[in-house]
Amino acid sequence: MRRMTIAALALVGAFVALYLTMYKMGAIGHLACGLGGCERVNTSSWSIFVGAPVAAWGLAFYVVTFLVALAGTSARYATRPELSYLLAAMSFV
Amino acid sequence: MANNNPPRNAKSAAAKPSSQRSVFIGVLIAIVVVGGAAIAYLMKNPSAGEGSATAQAAYDSLQANYKNAGPAKPYVMGNPSAPVVIEEFADFECPVCGNYATVTEPDVRKQIVQAGLAYYKYYDFPLPMHHNTQFASNAAACADEQGKFWEMHDQLYAGQDSWGLNPDGETQVTDNPKPIFVGYANKIGLNAAQFEKCYDSRKYQSRVDANTAEGFKRGVNQTPTFFINGTKMPGALPYDMIKSAVDAAAATAAASAAKPPATKPPATK
Predict the structure, then answer these.
(1) Is B228 helix (H, G, I), strand (E, B) or coil?
(2) How far apart are the first and last CA of chain A?
(3) Is B64 among the domain residues?
(4) CATH hierarchy code of domain A2-90
(5) Residue B47 falls within a domain, yes or no?
(6) Do B47 and A30 touch, CB atoms closer than 8 A?
């Protein structure tokens, strides 16, 4: 159940990161955010990390988390603790 | 007596994970459908989103205002025959532009422009929500009249906190930035009387407008936006990204400039 929750939340996170990545790449004209300042953040020099947009790194991380958590929900890995250890380790990244 | 029959609730216990999995798959499908639809909608309607509809309307109406602007006249730096041209569209009041101008641009000037790798062009692109930015562009144009555009450019960006946006990102520090700009003019050694006369007359507003119109023509929708040998690169780019783009553009330019060698038979002795 926990792995299912992690997978679902990671999938939501992946879509948010995809949205931010597409804005950074120019596919979406404006960011929609209530408090303002998102565009300033996303166009600042801090929005690039090791040559790629931070949002793209986030997208990759969420996709990997989703896939690991999803694998953990299958019958084959349901009782294997390794995936839980991996997810816990990923939370430190 | 041994009871080999499964417990009465075994069936429901076995069914629980299965129904849980069905719900899980349903949730995942719902997330994909809702997320995919939202992104598709935002791509189709780029102005969708809180507050941005107004910004888009302002952008559109602003663009219409510049239809009859004359040819752009950017401010330039470096060797015009350098293999690469870096063009920057920026707003003097934009904090991100200020961040680029004060942190990254000194390196770009020293390592790229002064090294002869690229020719630099600066275009005004004053955004409608920044109330003092047009004044700043005029101040910079008046400094250019006396040959000190870049000095004024640096003063304006370094001093944004004194005349631009408050930390809330919405309101202005002052409604009258002129005394501050005159202070900059004195500091960089301009003829202050000539500067003030120029500033008050807004005689270079048409130049600012023409530079802005050029940005609209090229689809600029955020500041700063760079074009490196024509390739659009929005955002306050870090130095490394600019340098690698310049190197790549120089390599491409060199490759296309080099004519294929005429086929000659190898020289024989």
Answers:
(1) strand
(2) 23
(3) no
(4) 1.20.1440.130
(5) no
(6) yes
Query: Model confidence at A10, in pLDDT bands (50, 70, 90)?
Result: confident
DSSP B104-151: IHHHIIIIIITTTSEEEEEEE---TT-TTHHHHHHHHHHHHHTT-HHH
Cβ atoms of B210 and B217 within 8 Å: the answer is no
Whether the bond into B224 is cis, omega within 30 of 0: yes
For chain B (269 residues), the mean pLDDT of every run of 10, in chain order, is 47 60 87 87 61 59 77 96 96 91 94 96 90 95 97 96 85 91 96 96 94 90 91 89 94 80 51
Query: Under an 8 A CB cutoff, do B237 and A48 touch?
Result: yes
pLDDT interval class at A36 (50, 70, 90): very low
ipTM of the complex: 0.73
Q: Which residues of B touch A33 (CB under 8 A)?
A: 49-50
Angle of helix B205-217 relative to helix B52-65, nearest 10 degrees, comes to 120
| Best residue of B33, B52, B232, B237 to probe chain A, by most A CBs closer than 10 Å | B52
Domain ranges of chain A: 2-90
Nearest in space to B158 (alpha carbons), one of B136, B178, B142, B189:
B136
Nearest to B230 by CA among B82, B100, B91, B84: B84
Query: Is 60 exceeded by the pLDDT of residue A4?
Result: yes
Instruction: Report, as an integer, the average pLDDT of A22-38.
Output: 58
Residue B176's domain spans which residues?
A: 75-252
Any domain includes B129? yes
Residue A30 has pLDDT above 60, yes or no: no
Check CB contact of B170 with chain A, cutoff 8 Å: yes
- Rounded CA-CA distance B85/B77 in Å is 10
Count up the domains in chain B and report the number.
1
Instruction: Tell me the shortest Cα–Cα distance from A57 to chain B, in angstroms.
Output: 17
Can you give the CATH number for the domain in which B245 is found?
3.40.30.10
Closest CA to A89 of A70, A63, A61, A53: A61
